[in-house]
Amino acid sequence: MLTLASDIEVLARFGRALADPLRCRVLLALRQAPAYPAELADALGVSRTRLSNHLACLRDCGLVVALPDGRRTRYELADERLGHALDDLRAAVVAVEAGRTCGDADEKGCC
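User: That's the sequence. What structure does it adopt?
Assistant: Structure tokens below.
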């Protein structure tokens, strides 16, 4: 069965978002609950500027949304199914090979 180009683009976009550990941490944090950037930066131990860049990337990928809340902006996952997808993806990868890292895969030239 052939995959539509749009399916490939969607998966590649999700993959680009997950390719950075900080963006993964942001997505996992937002899976738990919506958050304001300042609080999220403090919780993740990163600068607000660095977090802002990653939130912009996640917004551009369509994975998070910024919602005005008075004078502040709250971020949350664009769709609750993304939280389930993150859980399912993590569980599947752990089930397949829990002890493997990208460093292991790099030796074979795939990462």
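The domain at 5-79 is CATH 1.10.10.10 (Arc Repressor Mutant, subunit A).
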